[in-house]
Design a protein that fits this description.
single chain; 383 residues; alpha+beta; Adenine-n6-DNA-methyltransferase TaqI, Chain A, domain 2; five-stranded mixed β-sheet; 10 helices; 22% strand; elongated
Length: 383
Amino acid sequence: MVETRRICLDLTINSRPINKFDGKRIYVSTGDSDDMESGEVVGYYSRPSRANVQPKINDVIFAKMANTDKTFLIDEDLVKNIYSTGFFDVSSKRIYPKFLYYVIKSDEFNGYKNAYSEGTTQVSISDKRLRNIKITYETDVNKQKNIADFLDFRIGQIDKLILCLKNQITEITAIIDSLINEEIYHKHLREDCLYVNKDWLGKINKSWEIKKFKYLFTISKGLDITKSDLTLEGIPVISYGQTHNQKFLYNFSNNINDLPKVPETYLQFKKCIIKKGDFIFVDTSEDIKGSTDFSMHSTDDICLAGYHSLLAKPRSNIDSRFFMYQFRSSMWAHQIKARVEGVKVYSITQRILSNVEVVVPTIEEQKNIADTLDRLIAKYDYL
């Protein structure tokens, strides 16, 4: 029977302290939950005070923090970890475990969870408010199992499609990278090429130069703003979050109207105004791959550099399209990946960006190579 009821009538909010254990175990905070294997390895006495949630098999844990989708059904592997008190640990004798997992992941449940959350520095839901959530769900356990099995099957099909698409994207990305490397680093070599013996580059055209980034671009930080400074109308602003987004990666100008906005008063920060031909780099990333994410502005529309970003402005006349392709290449990106600092969050400092090297052909060759790559890569970027 489908009923609308307070879900806490059918489940238990567990509060099990960690039993003393020997050796080491993985501690999973809410921030680590996307990659649990990289969680902190701790002992019983050396664990953080928040490492105090020990679920059992078939329990469901989910983050208390609002606007997060961190929900896990505990199985034989996950039960070996210990978890942060930032998770609720719930179980039920009336709800089939996998069905409970899907209920807690549902939009209806999370809508109420977000609405009932409170706080200033961290908005989250309390035990008391969790008990007030009333949602609609099937209460017959046999039907719950059938629904959970059906969802497992359909989600499995979707996961296979996603994996197939990811593999295709990986193949296309490799093709694009190969085209860029061929046009910039290999095709224009002559017999009298210059051997440079760099860790990222073997040789270049003898008439080309290698310069440090700081001699080609000035570098400044973006606006020191937060989400609370954003408005519905105003000046587009691109921060690290948008730069990491595939929609704005490499060249954000075509989607500039989809960027967040800030009031026009922020135009007083002239060093943060992005002009045509300027570049925006992220200054922080959760993984090595994202540490090289950047975007270029290719129109005259007004835009601002936002938080956790580095704005690079050309010092002289260049064809920014050529450098956009160079920065996109795996060969060039290797320099940043080898220098980034951090463990769980990687920092890309002004010092790192300043000292990476850039291949600089003549302006005519920059334009010719950029024109060629525009033609070659257009069909792949469309895909």
